[in-house]
Every structure is written in structure tokens, then in C-alpha cells.
Amino acid sequence: MYLFSRILQFIAMIDCCVALIWGMYNPAAYGKQLIFLFTAVLLFYSGRVIQNRFLPDSPKISVKQKE
């Protein structure tokens, strides 16, 4: 499951790159960029949910910095 969650996160990064490239070549296509970015958010979030739910030993997202 860990590998699957990491693959989802990697695909999300590729999706963000596609949205960036799409925006450079066609700046007027805001709707398509938003669709790409929305799917990237869903992919990345689903990867984190899989890591946190099925792999309790994996590090969770923390907003506090370690001192």
C-alpha cells in the first residue's frame, strides 16, 4: 500500500507539471488548468489518506516544527 500511495503522489506531481505547461502554451485555458490542478489535489490527498489510514507507522503530516 505504501508504494501505491507514493505512486499516487508522484502522478499528482506530474499532473501539476502538465497544468503548468498547459498554462504556458495556452494562457486562456483557465478551466482546463483548474481541472488538472483539482485532480492533482485529489491524487495527492488520496495518497496521504492511504498512508495515514493503512500504514499507521508512517509519518503523519504535522504543522508543528520539531525543536
Summarize the structure.
The chain is mainly α and 67 residues long. The protein is 73% helix and 0% strand.
CA radius of gyration: 15 Å
Uncertain spans: none
Strand content: under 5%
Shape: elongated
Summarize the biggest pleated sheet. Answer: none
Number of domains: 1
In terms of quaternary structure, what is this? single chain
Mean pLDDT: 81
Number of alpha- plus pi-helical segments: 2
Helix-strand category: mainly alpha
Outline the structure in words.
By secondary structure, the protein is an all-alpha fold. The chain has helices spanning 2-25, 30-54. Helix 1 runs antiparallel to helix 2. The model has no long low-confidence stretch (mean pLDDT 81).
Notable features of this structure?
mainly alpha; 67 residues; 73% helix
Protein topology:
Elements: H1 2-25, H2 30-54
